[in-house]
Amino acid sequence: MTETIEKIALNQNKTSAVSLMDPNHDLAARAAWLSYIGGLNQTQIADRLGVSKVKVHRLINLALKLGMVKAHVENVPLACLELENILIEEFDIKFCTVVPDLIEDCDNTERDYTAIGAAGARFLQTCLENKSLKSIGIGKGRTLTSAVKQLAKIQRSDVETFSIAGSLYRSFAANPYDVVIELSRHIGGRGYFMPVPYIATNLAEKAQFQSQAFVQDLLAKAQNSDLFIVGIGALNKGSHVVDTGMISEAERLEVCAQGAVSDLLGSFIDINGHLVNAPVNELKLGLHYKDLKNKRVLAMAGGSDKAEAILAALRTNVITDLITDEAAAKAIAFILKKRIKG
Predict the structure, then answer these.
(1) How many domains does the chain have?
(2) Within-domain flag for 79
(3) What is the DSSP letter of 177?
(4) Which of 58, 78, 97, 81 is nearest to 12 (CA)?
(5) Alpha-carbon gap, residue 178 to 58, rounded angstroms
(6) What are the φ/ψ torsions at residue 235 (nearest 5 degrees)?
(7) What secondary structure does DSSP assign to 45-89, as a single string?
(8) CA of 177: how far to CAs of 50, 148, 168, 222, 304, in Å?
């Protein structure tokens, strides 16, 4: 019994040092935490991580082999697991990973997206190992870009990838954070770029793009994807959606005046997950988030400045899986706690 008790925790310093080098190391650490600290059995761990029971067994053995299991408990990973449980229970989502905050993540304006990207790469790797996956619909953003860059090499030439939002700025310049082509090249499959703006300038322009047969065909194919991966945008001053010219500052102020806190696939929603009444909400191109209802949808976003945006997206009841960071998860938990007290 003493030996068992002495093996109930992880040395986080060692774990964090290797987790960004090999996705399996990070996954092994999480599996060991869920087993020794969370008290979950291998079936429950397999469901939580989205892997097989056999892989769970191998991951826990890997954690032991790497010396991750020690005789003391580091409170940061345990706090992340507690936050994951809060989010899973509150929003009835299938999967949630909360990555520990990194020092470089503290400045929200210059956040390093590596940690969330690494977790996203691991999630995508697991999905691509499943041969039944044949298509991926993917959005755009810095976090998604980081995930694709960190994805281990895997040959899946049978998998098609689709942009599910417009791949261009209003100026018709290509969006550098549209990852569909990079992802398709990475796995060796076909990728389909959406050659329209993220948000049209006016209704006439939107109608012109939507009347094109190739756009209608791409949207129809994209909507039938097996897996969707999306980012979530905040609407604070200087937000990415304004800085890149996808909407104007005047439009941002207008949607914010109506209560919008989040940009989900070009739709602007309030804290309760409802579309706000603003003209710009009629201008999005690409799939509407409502088109993703009852699909598997992974959202990736982090930072305390995005807490309300993530909360709003979760309240649409479209998101089934979430990867975020400790700062965002703590802020969301605080908002939820205030609601209960109120």
Answers:
(1) 2
(2) no
(3) T
(4) 78
(5) 35
(6) -125, 25
(7) HHHHHTS-HHHHHHHHHHHHHTT-EESS--HHHHHHHHHHHHHHH
(8) 27, 11, 10, 18, 22
Among 73, 103, 123, identify where a domain stops. 73
Residue 78 lies in a domain: no
Q: What is the residue range of 41's domain? A: 2-73
| pLDDT score, position 78 | 81
Sequence-ordered list of residues with C-beta below 8 angstroms from that of 216, at least 6 positions apart, any chain: 210
- Whether 84 contacts 96, CB under 8 Å: yes
- Which pLDDT band, with edges at 50, 70 and 90, does 328 fall under? very high
pTM exceeds 0.90 for this model? no
Query: 238 and 95 in one domain?
Result: yes
Query: How many residues appear in the chain?
Result: 342
Residue 230 lies in a domain: yes
Instruction: Tell me the C-alpha to C-alpha distance, in Å, between residue 203 and each of 117, 210, 253, 281.
Output: 35, 10, 20, 11
Whose CA is closest to 117, among 26, 244, 208? 26
Residues 123 and 249 occupy one common structural domain: yes
> What's the DSSP call for residue 10?
E
Q: 268 forms bridges with which residues in the sheet?
A: 263
